[in-house]
Amino acid sequence: MNDADLIALRRQKDQFFKTSPHSPLTPEQQDAFQGIRFFAPNPALDLVVDVERLPGDAVTVQTTSGEVRQYQRYGRFTFTVDGENAALTVYETPHGFFLPFTDAAEDIYGGGRYLEPELLNESPDRARFEVNFNLAYNPYCAYGPGWSCPLVPLENRLKVAIRAGEKQPEER
Questions:
Q1: What are the helix (H) ranges across 86-133?
Q2: Least crowded by CB within 10 Å, which of 7, 55, 62, 73?
Q3: Distant-in-sequence, close-in-space partners of 29: CB < 8 Å, separation ≥ 6
Q4: Closest-CA residue to 25 (of 138, 109, 136, 144)
Q5: DSSP-derived 3-state class of residue 91
Q6: Is 57 in a helix, a strand, or coil?
Q7: Distance (Å, whole) CA 118 – CA 128
Q8: 118/40 Cα distance (integer angstroms)
């Protein structure tokens, strides 16, 4: 995705947060909303990765509200950020692929960020995905109570900084 398309998507999301009745923000928050804070576009973190398929075992994930959800492990990939190796697991849900992660970047939501990686092609033992960290977003629970958001599994807690996507929301 080029920078112009990314910036256009960001503007659309800002408009949704500011004006939509489906926004995660309260009406008071919407009135004061000045826009989502983002890292600058980072083309180096728009990746095409080979994912090694996993057996598809279920993972139990707790949510911020104490609920429990089940996700299927789809596969794992490795990549390099600023010369450091990292690995993440992609999960499969009834609604598509899900990539929750936390990282060591400053000024991000401590509960993690999410992505929906795009499947490009697959075989029985491997798959290829586009993983664009510039699209990493905060879960709705970052904006206020009342939302139930999956916690990031231990296997997706990175020690490297992913300086792309959304930053920590402004104070509520």
A1: none
A2: 55
A3: 143, 144, 172
A4: 144
A5: strand
A6: coil
A7: 9
A8: 22
- This prediction's pTM: 0.92
pLDDT mean across residues, the chain: 93
Q: Where are the beta strands (DSSP E) in the chain?
A: 46-53, 58-62, 68-81, 84-93, 96-101, 113-115, 118-122, 126-132
- DSSP alpha helices (H): ranges in the chain? 3-19, 27-32
Instruction: Measure the CA dihedral 91/96/97/101, to 10°.
Output: -80
Q: Where are the domains of the chain?
A: 37-156
- pLDDT tens, 114-161? 999 999 999 888 999 999 999 999 999 999 888 999 999 999 999 999
Cα–Cα distance between 32 and 28 in angstroms, integer?
Answer: 7
Q: In a 10 Å sphere around its CB, with 0-12 CB exposed, 13-18 middle and 19+ buried, how is residue 100 labelled? A: buried
